[in-house]
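Late entry, written up from scratch paper. The run itself happened at the end of the previous shift, but nothing got recorded in the book at the time, so transcribing now.
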Amino acid sequence: MATVGFLHTAHAHVRAFRDLLHQRDDTVDDRHLVDTGLLSGAREHGAASVRAALADRLRRLVAEGADVVVSTCSETGPEAERVGAEVGVRVLRVDRPMAEAAVLAGRRIAVVSSLPQARATVLPLLQESAAATGRTVELVDVRCPGTWSAFEAGDVVTYVTSVAEVVRRCVRAAFPPVDVVVLAQASMVDAAPLLRDLGLPVLTSPRLAVEAAVELVVPVGR
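Output as recorded:
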């Protein structure tokens, strides 16, 4: 059976990604490993400080049957990709498919983040994705300061509601208008339905990452 592994830094992501995977293809199995210390370590000492831990967690998921591993943390994802390449594990950082879709959706991209570390990883990824497709993009930085504490406390409703309020206000005030909204962190996925009134594509990383992972492990035309 094809199996997708998920490396998380928050327990809240396990059910969300499992549900997305089963909605996409219920014949694909899943394995999940949560290590909150990866995120705290990366914040305190830099992403390079958790390289050995990332290698260990990736190998553990492969040992449990994972054919590909999705790194669901936007902050540690770039390092997870690099470590995966070094140890022979296929790793997909959660925000890569979203970035690739965003640069195809429009030139002015609103990039929403609640953590500076997440912003620092996704902005270069968007520029990299644009360059790979020969496009020029303008990134509009939308910051949601003070919202992350609600997510850390387990109050996802307050978190995503607050994020949506900031996005709505900033996007409506933007001039020239933006073409697409990118919710840079997987934790923001439930803010997307709250932004339907904007009349713009609002991209989130979890669903797109799951779809990309399934395409990697399931034969075409199966």
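Strands lie at 3-8, 29-34, 68-71, 91-93, 108-113, 138-143, 180-183, 202-204.
(Scratch paper discarded after transcription.)
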